[in-house]
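Cast an eye over my tokenised protein here and flag anything odd:

===
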Amino acid sequence: MRRSIILLCLVLCLIAFLLMRTGFGIKEPVSAPETVATAPTSLSAATPPKDQKAPAARKPLKISSKGKVRLKPGESAVLGYWEIAPGMNGMAIVTPETTPEGHVKMTAKLLHLSDAAVSDTEANDLFPDIFDFENYSAIGPERLRELQTSLQKTRGVDMLTTPAVVSHPGQQARISIGNSNEAMLSLGLRADPVAEDGGYDLSLDLQKQE
């Protein structure tokens, strides 16, 4: 009898244990899913190209130069000047002579020379130094002939005009040339006689505007 009671108690305990496990059983912990961190991807619009600045308009060229050259009979005055234009230089050659009537005839050659042409014609001494703007020189007839021959054979030489004006001694005369682009070159001339040797003090007034 006692043995039956013990077996009954064991069965009841087993049933109770099963009921407790079913109703109040311990749940196994559920691990949270792993989260993979990814770096945020930023979408940036393509940077528009910077607006290219239009090249600055060239400033109007203005040249003003005045000088005087003492000339002996037969000599010519040469005005060499740097232009505000890349690689281009200006030159004026003026030869005064006395006419039978006692007037002064002044023949002028106005031209442009490239830097290479200045070297090719060996005319560097007729142009200003690097820190100067213009150079006034007197040359004899032989040097003038050599220079004219070189200018005719050299590329990069642009002869603008070869005018001649007649005036009274000491009287102002002016030569002006222009084109459709409103560029104007004006050369004022005045020949004052030198009594000692029959030459002239030649005054030159160059005005150029573009």
